[in-house]
Amino acid sequence: MKRAFSLVLITGILAVCVPMFARAEGQRIGFFANLGVMTKEGGSPYWLTLGPELMIPLGTRWSLNPEVSVWGSNFGFRSYYVVPGAVVNFRIGRFTLGGGAVRRFWISRFSNGDSSEKIAPKIQVGYRSRNSRITLIAIPFSSRNTVSLGVALGMGF
């Protein structure tokens, strides 16, 4: 739990400190609120996902996107994953191609001790309109020999 809190704190610090760097280059920091679904392991139903994402421009076509999301089963969120990560996106017109890394931390009232997983790669393809974005996501988890697939809708601010 301490590690998950630390990663959320680091994302918050980036949200406060980095805008000054991007404004110096005449670029604008973006913020997305994402809502989506990810498949569970073994083809069972899905996780609902919810979380913020920053879009920090690194030039005219590149951006760094730190994010933190919560993956919960149904709408109860009694047991859930906290999934911090970062993705580097390359923009081609309205389309984006991205690659990065995420790490899942299992949070449950029924578990004791550390239940985090190894860092996993994240691959995404997206289409962005003016204030919204739809993204297709693939995350291969080597520890479970599965690939979690998903789709996320983001509203930009």
Descriptive overview:
This protein has 157 residues and is mainly β. 15% of the residues lie in helices and 57% in strands. An eight-stranded antiparallel β-barrel has the order 1-2-3-4-5-7-8-9. The model has no long low-confidence stretch (mean pLDDT 80).
Cα-atom radius of gyration: 16 Å
Q: Could you say what the CATH architecture is?
A: Beta Barrel
Instruction: Give the structural class.
Output: mainly beta
Sheet with most strands: strand arrangement: 1-2-3-4-5-7-8-9
Averaged pLDDT? 80
User: Which term fits the overall shape?
Assistant: globular
At the fold tier of CATH, the topology name is Porin
Work out the strand percent: over 45%
State the CATH class. Mainly Beta
Query: How many H/I helices?
Result: 1
Helix content: 10-25%
Please outline what is shown here.
The protein is mostly beta strands.
Question: Which terms would index this structure?
Answer:
9 strands; 15% helix; 8-stranded antiparallel beta barrel; 1 helix; Porin; mainly beta
How is this fold's topology laid out?
Layout: H1 2-24, E1 30-39, E2 46-57, E3 62-72, E4 79-92, E5 95-102, E6 105-108, E7 120-128, E8 132-141, E9 146-156
Antiparallel strand pairs: 1-2, 1-9, 2-3, 3-4, 4-5, 4-6, 5-7, 7-8, 8-9
